[in-house]
Fold this protein.
Amino acid sequence: MKYRCLLYVAEDTIPAPGTPGFGDVRAANVAATGAMTKAGVLVDSAPLQPVRSATTLRVRDGETLLTDGPFAELKEQIGGYCLLECASLDDALRWAAAIPAARSGSVEVRPVIDVGSRT
Amino acid sequence: MFRAHWWPALAAVTRLVGDLEAAEDAVQEACAAAVVQWRTGGVPLNPGAWLVGTARHKAVDWQRREARRAHKEKAAVREYGLPDQPFQTGPIADDQLALIFMCCHPALEVAVQIPLTLRSVCGLTTPEIATAFLVPEATMAQRLVRAKRKIREAGIPFRVPAADTLAERLASVLRVIYLVFTEGHHASRGDQLVRLELCEEAIRLARALADLLPQEPEVSGLLALLLLVEARRPGRIDDAGDLVLLEDQDRSRWHHAKIAEGAALVERALRARRPGPYQVQAAIAACHSSAPSAAATDWAEIVGLYDELLRYQPTLVVEANRAVAVAMLQGPAAGLALFDAMAGNSRAVGWPPLHVARADLLGRLGRNSEAVDAYQVALALEPPAVERAFISRRILSLRSRKTTGR
């Protein structure tokens, strides 16, 4: 099964590029994804630009409405994601626990519907 | 009649068909078929295997029908095998463990783990569970459906957890069993008969789990704790239905065979030298149960055990129980000092038992009007009915003591 891990972190707690903390966070994430790659469970992963760069879109009555900013204002924002291929939730949770964001924020683990095999 | 077979049968069928909901429907139907067939043809030599075989047939039939509708019969037959072929019966114990670990998976809410375990492991019906938890049947049915959907969609596995997570996952299973028991033990609400059944179910479950996991001392610790607490039930409520304090209980009413079994179990568990909260609580209960009277109880030992329990469970309840034990060991003034310190905590101040305990100690110290005040505070916090009646009786007795005494 595929599991999408959504990494929620409070953006104001992330060290800015150039500060000494930034390198540590980066290294921790590289180590975590490296272990996932080595185990063959990582399908895809990436950090996201800050929520201030987000644009939220709705189409109503044929009209496209844009909002500057994220869909919802939360204390913690989605700062990145990874997609895992695991045999069960237990395996996915084990990998999710190794993601640095799990310690500084929260990781939401969501099973992905395999559209290809649906009848 | 089928209760004894339910857990192993549902566990085996879940492994065979790979889905809890389908397996449960199939086992339910197999039981219905058994009612008819066993009456005329007699009970088969191995009723458990009969139920598993019949349930599997039904499940495979459904899956085929489903597959035929989707024009995918060939794939289904390939996947699930022909029903006429002999099936692998793996170690039943592993299947049973896999099922209870799945039902108590921490990805499910505790409020869902409990009814799901009662349904899938204990074989209680949905109406029975709904009655026990005082919710409408439809609400309980929906809760169970949602739980099974989460298991399927999230890929909660049907297997015994890996060694490195076993302790953590076992704690979750033990908590569910403990909560089933306390739900039954709480005399404050619901039908008395249903409550008793929950206690018995929890003990049955703990006993079965202790057989399946003999190397885990916490499981024996839990079983011992439940037996020791249950053994005191006959003394806990008097003939008028009123709550009786431990020290005033008629100890000859206690169930002494259960006490002996529980005490032996906890002693054996502690010898493994891997203590845990249930073993410590069982040791405390064993201390109480083996004492001839409240005064002759080894209170020093109990205070020491509460100190150890606080390391696992730094909660108000444990702290309050420890303070009561200190009062018995060193006198009411020492206990009162601890409760007064606790009352400074904003969390504790709204908790009725704190004020009841303070009131009791004040009464012992002869500070009767302060005791009445403390009981009044407890009443204002609206404790359950049985406790309310107990507090009111205490206030009356304190007031009469005041007028006639001096």
Observations:
- The interface with chain A takes residues 70, 72, 105, 107, 153-157, 159, 161-162, 165 of chain B (CB under 8 Å).
- The two ends of chain B are 64 Å apart (CA to CA).
- Residues 2-90 of chain B form one domain.
- The longest helix of chain B spans residues 47-69.
